Amino acid sequence: MLVIEGRIFFKGKLTQGMIGIEDGRITDVKKVLKGDDHMDVGDRVVLPGAVDPHVHFRDPGLTHKEDFVSGSTAALYGGVTCVLDMPNTKPPVVNANALEEKKRIIRGRSFVDYGLFAALTPKTDAEALAKNVCGFKLFMGSTTGDILTNDDGGIYKAMSAAARTGKRISVHAEDNSMLGNGEEKNNRDHLRNRPVSAEHSAIQRLAPFKGMPINICHVTDAASVALASSLGFLTEVTTHHLFFADSVSESAEYKVNPPLRDSNTKEKLYKAFAERKITMFGTDHAPHTIDEKRRIYSDAPSGIPGVETYVPIMMDLVKSGNVQLDQLVKMACTAPAEAFGINKGIIEKGRDADLMIFDMKAGKRIKERGLHSKANYTVYEGWDAIFPETVIVGGNIQLKDGELCGEMTGRDING
Which residues contact 299 (CB under 8 A, 6 or more apart)? Predict the structure, then answer.
């Protein structure tokens, strides 16, 4: 048995203790444990591994932007021990053949555990796919692939089929009928074409499905959070929507769907976050090559990478007292694991032995050349962050002293 000793986040607070690990699971958490191997991390902080419920690792079909090797490496360095990957790859995951082919391609090529979404359309055989996916993704706003579902009849048919499976449905909530196509030269133009009212409308149109296991992805407005919560839906927020407004830059590096909002909307969203009204983080890690993002604005693709940086940024905010540790653990670890029925996200007996260990004195500045995504850029250049020193996935030490030391043993959580 491996024993980890340190300041453990256990039952809602940090406490000095030990974690026993055997066969990939936590066997016990006590003040004193004996094992074959003992790792004393001193005063370092030991947290459950983060679960990112929203990544685009671009595999298959778009692997010049990212693939599962590079994406999972980035996740690992950021303390993320499980990712849930979206279905708008090429081909999109809309049937059993596409799902099995994606699983075959990814198998043995991930440093972290992972689950795969299937796209939810009126033609999706949800019941046939359910046992092999982590959930379903409904795109009410346009995106990669022919998987847009924005008419009420199609949504009703798709949601009714998904309801029979009990799986959670993550929704890209932008009413496509309200999106414009005017000329875009900057982020303000992009915002004009994709107004916050389109987000409100999309969520309101889901009201007939009140109480279903629905997660509203990348919310950008406090009113969206309130509306979704009133319908019994979970909510997910990105760091880029929390920290940036449309005026941050003219660069397409900040172009994303849904777009960055105006400063007032962003501040209200952050207030909702600070008041703990948002369920969880989800990075919407959506990398493109730097050459693609440096095209003229109208031709540049939408998407911002973030899987490697969100936990380290939040850990620095914990150190400064601007974010409470228990909120970070809940939103980055516990809540996404609970939402998607994953045996992770909390340090307790029987859970997967996924841990991230931090030296809170070892802060550093984010530098794009030190990150691991194929994107080779970050909108967080120069930001203060605390990266994990050690990361354990399923009992395997994958990162130690800030260096990759493990193998691509990440497993598919849905077989």
Answer: none
